[in-house]
Amino acid sequence: MKFEELLIHRTSIRSYKNKPVSEELIEKIVEATIYAPSAGNLQAYKIYVVENKDILADLQKAAPQQEYLSQSGLVFVFCALPEESAKNYGERGSKLYALQDATIATTYCQLAVTNLGLASVWIGAFNDAQAVKALNLPANEIPIAILPIGYASEIPYPTSRKPIEKTIVRLK
User: Fold this and answer.
1) Domain positions in the chain
2) Less Cβ crowding at N or C end of the chain, within 10 Å?
3) 139-170 pLDDT, tens per residue?
């Protein structure tokens, strides 16, 4: 798929087929994701690849209005590692760069998923404490995004975008 097509085809899918994603595709997604840029190349994030039904059910409780979370059968959870980024960048690293690293990795993951013919949706609306408990995260890891991944059982209409002139400010 051409890059422009990839960007246009990436959309949020909230309904998935009951079909597992192969180990080969999971590896390809992970391999593409780790090439995301990061502050100082510290890669101050961790990715949890969740297939365990019990953990998925617990994550579902953390995001009760996102019922499609456990429907996909495969979820990536992106966590920021503030302490890693703080080593080089102090407070700005811990409060900003680690979050950016995790979100950029999530974006790369979504693009890789789309390129492989799969679907995803970015979930940011979840209860942090419940997600931490579901994944048994250490105190130094902050969940940033939950990404269900699978085969789409819906074909959504393309979403609209704001007019360019309302988004872009050119300073010459």
Assistant:
1) 3-153
2) C
3) 999 999 999 999 999 877 677 888 888 999 98
Q: How many residues belong to the chain?
A: 172
152: which strand partners? 16
Tokens linked to 2: 């051409």
DSSP 46-111: EEEEE--HHHHHHHHHHSTT-TTTTTSS-EEEEEE-HHHHHHHHHHHIIIIIHHHHHHHHHHHHHH
Q: Which helix (H) or strand (E) holds 134?
A: helix 128-135
DSSP characters for 61-76?
A: HHSTT-TTTTTSS-EE
**Model-level pTM greater than 0.90?**
yes
Cα 120 to its chain centre, rounded Å, is 8
Q: What number of CA atoms fall less than 13 Å from residue 94's CA on the CB side? A: 8
CATH of domain 3-153: 3.40.109.10
**Residue type at 40?**
G
* pLDDT tens for each residue of 34-74: 999 999 999 999 999 999 999 999 999 999 888 888 888 89
CA neighbor of 116 nearest in space, from 30, 31, 28: 28
- The tokens of 51 are what? 């297939």
Q: For the CA atoms of 14, 112, 81, 61, what is the dihedral angle to 10 degrees? A: 20
